[in-house]
Specification:
Length: 323
Amino acid sequence: MILENSVSLPSSTTEANKPAGLLAGAANGSISELGRRRLEKFAALMPRVIVTDDAETIHDVRVWSRRLQQILTMLAPRSAKKNKPRKLARSMRRIRRILGRPRNLDVMTQLVEERIGAASNPVVRDAWDQLRVHLADRRGRAVERSREKLRDFDLVNFAARARALIDGAGDALEESFTESVAGALADWRAAIETAKAQPGTEEVHALRIAGKRLRYRVELLAELGHGPAKSWVKSLRLLQDQLGAWHDRQVLLETCAKFLSQKDFLASHPGLARALLVEMERERRRANGAVDGLVKHAEKASGAFGETEFATGEITPPAGEEP
């Protein structure tokens, strides 16, 4: 199956430069098959998160919900405020929000444990350990609240509706996919320019989110057999890892601040509070110092896409194991 027309990814998505035929010549069933496999993966993981508090399971459910959402979003016309695909995509976002709190606490616990292991000062080590105990207590309660909120999620009904939409998508998927990749790239490049002009916390966070959306779309393109997309995925994944580390440090600072704001903590533990405040200042400086490098890295990654056209080549249906 051959890409009959090469297609460039422009910096905007106006009608004049909207790409067309990104998957020309490829079987629509390729995208549909990926959609079905992503649905099956998500549906297999979802029941496990109800019966286990395993950190990796929670993480995997969130990752596969995002991957499945990429397919569902393609089926949701932007012009329609109410439609079935959009409603299903919102369900995926809701799942991630519900599991987001336990996931954040898992990440924070891992960061704190790393700092405990690296601390040579016993007071600093004790301060971080106090925070670790606090996070463990909050994590248990967060998992229980998440399970309560997930009780009304009808997995069987969701899977049936999602499968029907994916199977019935037909030619709509190719056009939607083309628009989706180009739009995500345009949004990401706009976020880079904004972060470059005003490298604040909100702007860098917006860059991270835009990059995440682009990465998942380009991953789909790579799975469909587009050669250059594989290198783009690698570049985006490295950048997202760095942005993720920056974001985790920001969340850690917020977590420490809330921990110190507990009633009577400063009065009861002045030494631990002082040590943790010093550690927070170090974390803040590291986070701020990383911003310029992150934006430059994003610019370099954007340049890898260039203004070149998608190379003509073969796209074959996915085979073998899931990613």
